Every structure is written in structure tokens, then in C-alpha cells.
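Encoded backbone
================
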Amino acid sequence: MHDRPNIPELLDAVQRFLDEEVVPATSGRKQFLARVAANCVRMVDRELAMERKQFEEAWHGMNRLFGSESAPSDRIERGMAVSGRLELLCERIQDGEFDEDSEHYDLILAFVRERVREKLQVSNPKLLEADAKRGIE
């Protein structure tokens, strides 16, 4: 465990440097790439901040779909376990197990919608804010 600067502080420093120093001092392609880089740093920061909560919610949802399974405690193992369970979910969707006439259709639809919402919370939270203003969930 490290003290300061911590990960969010380091990411904030890089993002501010890109936004406040590099973007105004460049133009064209370099400016565009600096904006992309700053946005990537913001996405990493949001993902790290939300990672544990989003994992727990996804794991709980998959437990409702597949039956309970203990979640790994290690961060890397958690990522691999979620990926594996999501692959299984995709296979079962492709096999028609969760088609509209299935008893779990509403459950799977809610699960997938929530995972998409979580992805947008990381990649483009402004889109979710705009949808909320328009009454879209």
C-alpha cells in the first residue's frame, strides 16, 4: 500500500496536464490525441473507483441466473471469473435459453441493461446524464 500521491491523485495530475497544458498548446491531430488521452485517463479513474461495486453487482446478478458461486477475492481472479461467467451467459443467450418466452427473460434483460449502464458510467457518464434528463433509463 502506497501513501501519496495515490492512484486517483496521479490520474488527476495526468488528466489536468493534458487538458490544461498539452491541449491548449497543440492543434490538429496532436490536440485530438491529447484530448483522447485525457479522456482515457478519466475512464481509468472512473473504472478503478467503481470496479469493486460493479463487480459485486454483476456477480450477484449472475448468481441469480446460474446459482450461487463464491466470488474470488483476488482482483485479477475476479476479472477472469466474471469474464468466464459472461462468456457462459452469452452462450446460453445464443442457445435461446433466455428468449422472450423463457421464465428468466425479464431477469436477463434487467441484468444486461444494468451491465450496459455500468459500462456507460465508466466510458461516457454524460450520456447517462443526458438520458436521465430526457426520462430515459
